[in-house]
Structures
1.
Amino acid sequence: MQPFSFHRPTSLDETFSLLEQHGDEARMIAGGTALVVMMKQSLFTAEHLISLDRVPGLSGIRGEADGLHIGALTRHRELEMSPVVRSAAPFLAEVYSHVATVRIRNQATVGGGLAHADPNQDPPAAFITLEARVKLVSRNGERLVPVAELFSDYYETVIQPGELLTEVIVPPVAPGTRTAYLKFLPRTEDDYATVAVGATAQMQGGVVQKLKVALIAAAPTALSATVVEDQLVGKSVTPAAIRQAAEAVEAIVDPLDDFRGSSSYKRDMAVVFTRRALERVLQDGA
Amino acid sequence: MNADVSQPVRLRVNGEQREAQAPSTRTLVDLLRYDLGLTGTKEACGVGVCGACTIMLDGRMVASCIVLAVQADGAEIKTIEGIGDAEHLDPVQESFIRNGGFQCGICTPGQIVAARALLDEIPSPTEDQIKEWMMGNLCRCTGYYQIIDSIKDAAGQAKA
C-alpha cells in the first residue's frame, strides 16, 4: 500500500478546509470496504485520506414528510434492518440485503457506496427506481441530484471537487407500488451480479400508470432504462408488449466480458431479466 | 510521496486498553497480529471475502483485513482471544468440537467469532438465518454441514 496521511476531521467545516488545502491529492474514506481493497491492490492511491466517520450529523435515518433521509455514513446493515426503512420503503431494505455479506454490510456505508460508483453494486437499482436524490454539499451551498444522474462513468460521478455527498432522500413510495429486484447470480450468493434488474410500477385497471426500471452490472454505470418505461407507460399490459419493451435494453447496455459471462451473454441476459422483472411488477400473479 | 509516519492507535481489545504505533497503511488484522501479538485472527484472502479475519469492531462483525488500523483508533475490539479460554470454552467452541465443525482449523477463529456474533444478535436462528449470516466464512474442509450443525447445537436446537 502506498503511504498516505490520514485525517479525521470532526466537523464539516474542517473537512472542507482539508479538501481546499490538499485539492487533488486528497480523497475521502467512509467504511473503506472498497477503498482499502483498491489501495492494497495499488489500484488507488492518495496522498491524503480524509475519514468522515467523526463528522457529526452524517449518519442515521429520518422519516420526514418529503420521504426518508438517509445519512451518507449510515451503514448498509443499519439501513437493511431499520424499522423506518422496512415500513416506508421495504424494497430498499430488500435490495440492500443482496449486497455482499453481513460482514461487509456492517462496515460499508450508503454514501460511500454511491460515491464509489461501482456499476456492479446493487443499491442504485432501488434508488433509481424509487426516484431518490442525493444531497451534495460544498462550502458554497448544496444541490440535489437524482441518483439516476449521479454516475458518469466507471467509478466516476458528477460530484465536484470540494463537494461532499451528505445524504440520500427517498421520496414517499405510493401505496400499491409493486417492486422487483432480480439479481442473476450463477456463481455464489455473495458475488456481484452477472446482470441485475430493479423495477417499480403502479398499475390501474390493467394500464401502466408509472414504471421505473434500472439495470446493474450491464454498463459503465447503473442504468436508468427510460427506453423500457416509455414503451409501456399509459398502455395496457400484454405479454407481447412486455417482451418488446424488454428488448429495448439491448440498445443501452454495454457489459464487459469477464468471468461472470461474455459481453454478448450478459446482453442477452439483460433482456431476459428485464422481461422477468417487468412480468413481476406488471402482471397479476406473476 | 508522504513518509509512512507512524501514529498512535489506541484500542480496547477484549476488555483491555492497548496502544501501538502504526503507519497509516497498517491494516487492523496486521496491527492485532504483529503489534499486539494476537495471532488468533488470521488473514487469508486479504480482500474481505473469506471471513478468516473476522473480529468484532464496536459490536459489529467486520473483516479486519480491509479496515485500516487508524480507522479503528478509539474502538472497542473483540477477537477470538476474547471468546472463552482454555479452561472455560465458549458454548460455541464446545459445540464446534462436539460436531466436527472444523478440520484444518485455519478458518475456525473467524467461524467462531461470526457464530458467536450471530447468536448474540439472534439467539435461536433458523437454518436460513445461519446460512445468510455465515455466508462469507469460507471453509475448504468441512463442507459446511458440520458448521451449521455446530451453530444449531450451540443455540440449543436439534440437528436437522
Note: The mean pLDDT of chain B is 94.
2.
Amino acid sequence: MRLFSHQRPELPIVDHVKTDGTPWTLKEKLWLGLSMPDYFKQFFRNPVNWLMIGIFAVGLPLLLQRYIYGLTAVTHASNDYPWGLFLGFGLFGMVPLSASGFMLGTTVELFGRKDFHPIERLALLNGLLGYFFAVVYLEVDLGMPWRLPYPMVVSLGPAAVLFLVAWHVATYLSVQIAEVLPAFFEWIGWLKGKRVIRKMVLGLTIAGIILSTLHQGALGALFNYAPAKIHPLWLSINFQWIHFFCSSIFGGLSMVIVSSTLIRNFAGWRCDDTFKKSLDDITLKLGKGCSLAMITYLVIKLVAVAHDQEWEYLLTGWGGYFMLELGVGVILPMFMFAAAVRNNAPGLARAAAFISVVGIIWNRLNTSMIAFNWELYPEIPHWKEVWITITLYALYFITYRFIVYRLPIVYRWKGER
Amino acid sequence: MKSTVSRRNFIKGGLAGTVAATVLKENTSQAASFEGYPEGMGVLVDLTRCVGCRSCEAACNQEQKLPQPAKPFNDFSVFDEIEHGQKRRTDETRYTVVNRYDVPGQDHPLFRKIQCNHCQEPACLTSCFVNAYTKTPEGAVIYNAKVCVGCRTCMIACPFYIPTFKYSSAFNPRIMKCVFCYDTRLKDGKPPACVEACPQEALTFGKRSELIKIGQQRIRETSGKYEDHIYGEHEVGGTAWMYLSSVPFDKVGFDTHVPKEPILNLVKDFLGIVPMVLTIWPALFAGFHLLATRKDWLKGKTEDDHEEE
C-alpha cells in the first residue's frame, strides 16, 4: 500500500468522494481504491501474506477433517483433558486480551477522558474481534457446534457458571458490535444509524462494564468446578474470579498497545497524524494503567496464597514454575511499564506489553492445561490441534487487518461524519 | 457541540443498563433448594469381596449395548494395561471398569470397580448450562443427549473422571456414562445389570440410607478388617455408590482429597456476586460518569444560561 499512496494522492481512502468530486463506490472502498491487479500486486508483495497462505493451505483441510471425522481426527480425544488448546488458548486466552473494549470505552465515554479518544475505536475493535474469535474457537471445540444457541433458547441451566459466560459473552458481543458500528456507518455513509448508536453509548458502556466484570470473573470461576484436579497454586476458590478479572485489565490494555504498535509500524499509511502523534503519549498512559493493575493483581495473588496456606507449595517444582510465571509474565513487565512511564520511554512500554500479553496467555494455559490434572500426566496437544489453533489465529489476524485497512479505526473520516 | 449528557440521556442510559440487568438476571434459587433425594437407591461396593472376575463389565457392556471390546471379558491381562501411567478408565466403549491393585503387605490383590458414583449433588449436573443431567428420585444421574452441546464442562467438573465423550463421532457425539441402568432396570425398582451379575456379592444394592447402616455394621462387626470409613458417605456431598475397603482408600486409587461438600458449594460465592454486580454497577458507574464530567456539565450549563439571555 505504501507504494501506491505515494503515487496516488487520493489514497488511502478517507472520504466519500475522490479528489475530483466523484464518489467512491462500495466496491472501490473494498478494494482500497486499487484496481484488482494493483491490489493483488501489493497483496503478494507482502511476505506475511505468504505465511498466511502457508498456514491456511494446511489448516483449512485440517478444519474440514475435524468437521467430517470428528474431534478424534485432529486432537488426542482425551477424556482426562476435555479442554485442550481450542479453549485453553482460544477462549481463556482471547477473552482477557479483549478486555480493551470495555476498559477504553469506560475511560473515554464514562470518565470523559477525551485524551484516549484516538485509540478508543481500536480498543473497541480489538475487543469485538477477540470475543468473536473466542466464539469461533468454541465452535471448533464444541461437540455439537450447531447447538450453540441451546443454552439461550432450548434448554436453560441457569445455575451453571458456564450459563453466565454464554449469556454474557453473547450479550456483550452484541454490545460491542453496536459500539463498533459507528465506524462502519461512517465508512458506508449512513449517518442516521451512527446517531442512533451515539444516543445509546452511555448505556452500552455501562452494560459493557457489568457484562465484562461478570464473565471475565466467570471464566475464572469455571475452574472452581475442578478443585481436586488443578494445582492449588493456580486455583484459589475464593479469589479465582478476582484473579481472572484483574489480570484481564492489564491483559486488555497490553493487547491494545501491541495491536496499535503493529498497526503504526506496518500499516502506517492507514494511520492519521492525530493517531500517530498521540500514540506515544497514550501508550505510556496505558502502560501506567497496566502497572497499577499488575501490582493489584500481584497483591491479590499473594493474598490467595496466604489465605489458602499454600506457602509450602512454593518450595516445590510447581512452586518454582508458579513463581517463574509471575516473575516473567507479571513482575518483569510491571517494572518495565513503571520504568517506561518514569523515563518517558514508549518503546519500553511496548516491549512490556508484548511480554504481558504472552504472560496472560501463559497463565490461562497453565490453569486450563498444565496445572490441570497435575497429579496425573501432562497432555501434549496433537500437532493438528496446534495447527488448527494457529489457523484460527491467522484468520483472526487477517480479519483484524481487513477491517483496520478500511474502516475509520485509526484515522478520522474526512467526509461527512 | 455540547459534550455533556442531558438528564434525559442519562436516564435513558441508566434505564438501558437496568433493563440489561433485569433481562440477564440469573436464577440461582433452583440449585439452592436442591437437597438431593435421601430415599434414593445406591450400591455398596465391598473391595474385600471382589475377585476381579469382570462379570460386571460384561453385564454392563451387554445391557448398555456397547461395542464389543478387543479383548474378551475373561481376559485378565487387561489389569496390566497402563496408559499415560494410569490404570484403565471409563471411555466411550465402557461405562464401568475393574482395576487391580497390588497393595504391599496384602497377601492378595484388591480390585476396585469404577463407574458413575451417582452423586447426591452431582457436579456434572450443576455445571451443565443446558440442564442435560437429571438426578432422579431413584438415585440415578441420567443424561439427555438431545440438549447436550458438547462443551464437556461436566467432564471437567466430575471429581471422579467418569463422564466420557464420544469424540469419534462428528455428527452425533454425546457424553457416554453409566446411568445406573435407569431406563431398563432402576426405574422399575430392579438393581443395575452389574450388581445382578456379581457372583461374589461384592455389590449390595439398596436404599442409600440403608447401605450406610450396612456399611457401618460391617465395619463394626469385623473389627480391624475394614478401614473405618465409607468412601462416598460424605465425599463431594455424598454419593449413591459407596465403597468399603480393607486398606487406606488412597492405596487403591481413590482420590481422598476431593472436597467433603458438593462441588456446587465452591462456585456459590461467585454466583452470589452476580445479582450485586447486576444491580449496583449501573447506578455506581452512572454516578462516576456524572462526577467525572461534572465540570463539563457546569460549563455547558453556564453557556446555556448565556444563550437564554
Note: Chain A touches chain B through 73 residues (CB under 8 Å).
